[in-house]
Amino acid sequence: MKAFSFRIVTNADGVEIIDPRQSTEFDSLNLRELRRYLDVEEQLYYMERRKRQQAREEEHRRKLLYKLAVLLGVI
Fold this sequence. Notes:
Elements: E1 3-4, E2 7-10, E3 16-19, E4 24-25, H1 31-62, H2 64-72
Antiparallel strand pairs: 1-4, 2-3
């Protein structure tokens, strides 16, 4: 049985929180909720991908060869 690796929890004041410690099975959702979970999953994937990309760029900027190229005006 497939499941999402997170659960959307609504607080008493109406604020929704994404809890990655819980999972949500596909069968427990209706079509509207399933679509919402799919949208949230896509957004989480995009944010994680962007975070990894920024980490790679930051690592690249810290390397000595990159700093030397900037210093010499190549980049």
